[in-house]
Design a protein that fits this description.
This protein has 289 residues and is mostly helical. The protein is built from 10 helices and 2 strands. The protein starts with a helix and ends in a 13-residue tail after the last helix.
């Protein structure tokens, strides 16, 4: 029983950290620009397909890096002519625009890669398991946890130790004031949108050996990303982490009690948090107000 509980707990941690990575990019975009960015799920999906295509040719690690850069560039190409036009409009404009773009990207994916799910094997050196003393844990899930923690640490250093990161944090609380101080907001938004897209792509890339790739995978994961952002609090870095880990661990542990309730558990958490803390666990005052 102890081994089973430990396995589910560690599995929940690895799943939760994938949610955290996906939600971090979404939270930066939603908190700073106020765009309900449904296309973020498509970035997640493209990152997975980039890995699926490039890993056999250039290796798994380089495939993740190149895929993230390409998706970040795609995000910039989308932001400048389209997303930028909805910043000053009501949120529904952004929601409809990005939802429509998601459908277009999914259809293009089906044309290029086909409609069927495809498996991806982890690199050979990450196959097998690692002995944690009380149980054998899959090596690849352990790698997912380590690489995600490294990226989360890098994002935290970027947001807290660089001038540009401080501009982003200040913009989340009051972007009009930041603009009044002379900051080039359009350029800032474009760069942040590209960073957010790249983070979504990395999440998709590292999740692909766990869940395979399919055109619909972005639509499935974006729902959890929004749940994590709302549970943690819009615009909050630590909220994304707390929300992602909470949703991932609860989903995994619920399987031990009643597996059909696994997906439903996330919506129960969301409902409870909205009832008790409408801004989320670490909600930032001013974000989207």
């Amino acid at each position: 029983m102890l081994e089973m509980l430990g396995m589910q707990l560690f599995t929940g941690l690895s799943l939760g950290l994938v949610f955290v990575l996906l939600a971090l990019g979404l939270n930066l975009i939603l908190g700073l620009m106020g765009v309900v960015n449904f296309v973020h799920g498509a970035f997640f999906m493209i990152g997975a397909y980039m890995t699926f295509t490039l890993a056999p040719k250039i290796g798994f690690g380089f495939a993740i890096l190149i895929g993230a850069l390409l998706v970040g560039f795609i995000g910039i190409l989308i932001e400048v002519p389209m997303i930028r036009r909805v910043y000053s409009r009501i949120p529904e404009y952004g929601l409809l625009l990005t939802f429509g773009m998601t459908l277009i990207i999914e259809q293009l994916t089906r044309i290029i890669w086909g409609d069927f799910p495809q498996p991806i094997s982890p690199p050979s050196f990450l196959a097998g398991g690692i002995n944690l003393g009380f149980m054998e844990f899959p090596m690849y899930r352990f790698f997912v946890m380590l690489i995600t923690l490294v990226i989360i640490g890098a994002v935290w250093l970027f947001l807290t130790k660089t001038n540009f990161g401080m501009v982003i944090r200040a913009g989340i609380e009051d972007r009009l004031m930041v603009g009044a101080l002379g900051v080039n907001l359009p350029l800032t938004f474009t760069i942040v949108y590209g960073i957010g897209a790249a983070l979504g792509a990395i999440a998709g890339a590292i999740a692909s050996p766990l869940y395979g790739v399919s055109p619909s995978m972005g639509g499935e994961f974006i729902i959890y990303a929004f749940i994590v952002v709302i549970v943690g609090g819009i615009g909050s870095f630590w909220g994304s982490i707390a929300g992602g880990l909470l949703v991932g661990i609860v989903q995994s542990l619920v399987v031990l009690i009643w597996s059909p309730a696994q997906q439903m558990s996330s919506f129960i958490i969301l409902a409870l948090v909205l009832l008790l803390r409408p801004r989320g666990l670490f909600g930032v005052e001013g974000a989207l107000d």
